[in-house]
Amino acid sequence: MGMLIQDLRYSLRTLRKTPGFAVVVILTLALGIGANTAIFSIVDGVLLRPLPFAHPDRLVRIFDDQPGAGLNDIGMSVPELRDLQERSGIFDDVSAELSGDLNLTGVGHPERGELLGVSPNYFSVLGVPAQIGRVFGPQDRADGFSETVVISDGFWRRTFGGNPAALGQRIRLDNDAYTIVGSYIPAWQATRIDPMLALRAD
Fold first, then answer.
1. How many CB atoms are located within 10 Å of the residue 53 CB?
2. Domains of the chain: which residue ranges?
3. What does the alpha-carbon distance between residue 62 and residue 176 come to, in Å, rounded to a whole number?
4. Does residue 136 contact residue 200 with C-beta atoms inside 8 Å?
């Protein structure tokens, strides 16, 4: 301890004699510690912690690549999805997901939002319950897109002020009318994305 205290005193005297160098050292340490903390927070939230869903060890993401054409994550056709759902024999359940942007009107000023088109079983596969109202279920099955929409907690609070009266309201997404049937809290909204709307699509 005596040697350590002597070294600290010597370092402080040296830094006091050269204030410019001291400022550079302190800024370098601050930037290094800050960068390391930020990177660890991201790695911890994305890679180290388990996914915030029921049975995360049993969840997999399936996507198609075409290496010959240099294309990655191109999605799959409806027949391929049906084969996975009905004939693979290795999955308990399969749900489709398609993201994109859209124009939202009918609630205040028009805005650009993020859409997450999903299968009716999407929420049950992930074990995500409704915050208010309901999420999609078998009753929403239809060809193409159904007329129901589930909004995220962030969008519900931002646009409707957290008012449950948002249920049953009609909104227009790219000029098509939909009815809000529920709100949910995306388990990933604190780390990665907050899909504004989840639209049921077969």
1. 14
2. 2-48, 56-201
3. 30
4. yes
